[in-house]
Specification:
It contains 17 helices and 16 strands. The chain has helices spanning 3-33, 40-52, 64-67, 72-79, 93-106, 132-135, 138-144, 151-160, 166-170, 183-193, 196-199, 248-263, 277-283, 286-300, 331-345, 349-352, 360-366; strands at residues 58-62, 83-87, 111-115, 204-206, 213-218, 221-224, 234-236, 268-272, 303-306, 371-378, 386-393, 399-407, 412-419, 423-427, 432-440, 448-453. Strand 10 (371-378) and strand 11 (386-393) form a beta hairpin. The radius of gyration is 25 Å and the shape is globular.
């Protein structure tokens, strides 16, 4: 054998051994540094996805609003097919695209359902150029960390961010560089990774206050028995929507997803899971988002259903016993929502119109007067001593509120007697209970009282 060929073979073997050693070192560093709780859902999800690949018929993609709200086992009994929620925490639209491609290459998909929770898709209020796709890198790399290596995975990784983030994207342990040499931290990570639930890809968490538990049930479903109590209905305002609020990249990827499904002859349906009214009212201008998505769906010729617009006579779900928090349904809510979701998405689009209001504003006008809780935001000034709060109700006018505060330290005091004003302030360090009494102006009937801890 010529000397040059022998040297080439040695070089190839040397490179192979070097790569093997490098991969082993990276795996070891990931093991001792990557905190399991940061992406525990995605680790379990991908393990079960790869166990189930090849038999998935109907695929549900999106954020935690899918894995909490849609029960795929219940759908199995309704459809006679195998359903799977390939949904991850705050899943961004580029992630939805690459997860769809991953599932499509492994399964013969009968239908794809894309959940479009607005919180993952709209532009930032203060810096519109910084939509989540450009800033929330972890919501993508928590998926790529557990996907099997493929051309699709590499393309996904390249879509997450530029070269300045490649080390964080490719080498998960690099994200924990602040704990380099922190032996207490390393010991805690290793102990967690040797627990039975971790080793067996299980998840169970008792909420600790006697109010339910969280548990992974399989097929990408997160079972939660926690109930959204009135006292917990204090919500930090997250978004204030402007016209055409969807981010440019989010819209671009949504259109790419629709085109991909059309090219592959995979039926696709867009939908939004029901959110507690407290969050939607705190957002303001929610109809801007509905209008934009409706226009995209109509232009592309696909069905879109926003279940926040459902008439109560068809889906009476806006009750605390069906929610785990202001964002997500609990397992009791999922048991009600999932069959109705199936009824709608498997039905005739024209006949389905009877279930829905035309807009969120119309829904608020047509439903009975109600209060849903309190939302707040801190003052823009760092030195502010108060935070501003608003009563969340479905009436802009004609409803009046009495506001009493019972501080944990101090005496009970009246903020306002019955008045249409919804806005008030609380000292920023104060804790206690806010008692809201609401009624239609001048009426002594249908009085609502809600006590909210702050």
């Amino acid at each position: 054998m010529p000397l040059c060929k022998i040297q080439f073979i040695k070089r190839v073997i040397g490179i192979g051994i070097g790569l093997y050693i490098f991969v082993k070192i990276v795996c070891f560093l990931n093991y001792i540094y990557v905190e399991p709780i940061d992406s525990e859902w995605e680790r379990i999800l991908w393990h079960h996805y790869y166990e189930d690949r090849g038999k998935i018929d109907n695929l549900y993609l999106g954020s935690s609003h899918v894995y909490c709200d849609v029960n795929p086992m219940l759908l199995d009994s309704l459809t006679g097919q195998y359903n799977f929620n390939l949904a991850s925490s705050a899943q961004l639209m580029n992630g939805t695209y690459y997860l769809l491609k991953e599932a499509d290459k492994d399964n013969q998909l009968s239908h794809v359902y894309i959940e479009l929770y607005y919180g993952c898709n709209v532009k930032d209020n203060l810096e519109p150029d910084k939509e989540d796709i450009n800033t929330r890198y972890d919501k993508n790399w928590h998926n790529t960390d557990y996907m099997k290596m493929s051309a699709n995975k590499l393309a996904y990784m390249l879509s997450i961010a530029g070269a300045d983030k490649y080390a964080d994207i490719c080498l998960p342990f690099v994200r924990y560089r602040m704990n380099l040499g922190n032996w207490d931290y390393i010991k805690q990570v290793i102990e967690k990774k040797n627990q039975e639930d971790y080793l067996s890809y299980k998840y169970h968490y008792d909420c600790g206050d006697g109010n339910g538990y969280d548990e992974y049930k399989g097929q990408g479903y997160f079972d939660c028995t926690r109930i959204y109590l009135d006292k917990a209905r204090l919500y930090p305002q997250q978004k204030v929507l402007s016209e055409n609020p969807m981010g440019e990249k989010a819209e671009e990827y949504l259109r790419i997803i629709i085109d991909y499904c059309k090219e592959k002859n995979i039926p696709i349906t867009l939908f939004v899971s029901p959110i507690n009214e407290l969050q939607l009212i705190s957002t303001g201008n929610y109809d801007y988002y509905i209008t934009q998505v409706k226009n995209i769906a109509e232009e592309c010729g696909v069905a879109f259903y926003d279940f926040n617009l459902v008439k109560e006579e068809y889906l009476s779900i806006q009750q605390g016993k069906y929610f785990k928090d202001a964002d997500h349904l609990n397992s009791f809510g999922a048991e009600i929502f999932t069959p109705f979701l199936h009824r709608v998405v498997s039905g005739n689009r024209e006949e389905n119109e009877k279930y829905f209001y035309n807009s969120y504003a119309e829904k608020l006008r047509e439903t009975e007067p109600a209060i849903y809780g309190i939302y707040y935001r801190y003052s823009d000034e760092e030195s502010a001593m108060t935070r501003t709060m608003w009563i969340a109700s479905n009436r802009e006018s004609g409803m009046e509120y009495k506001i009493i505060v019972r501080a944990n330290e101090g005496e009970q005091y009246l903020i306002q007697d019955f008045d249409e004003n919804k806005e008030f302030t609380i000292p920023i360090e104060e804790e206690g209970t806010c008692i809201i009494t609401a009624r239609m102006k001048g009426s002594l009937e249908n009085i609502q009282i809600m006590e909210v801890n702050y």
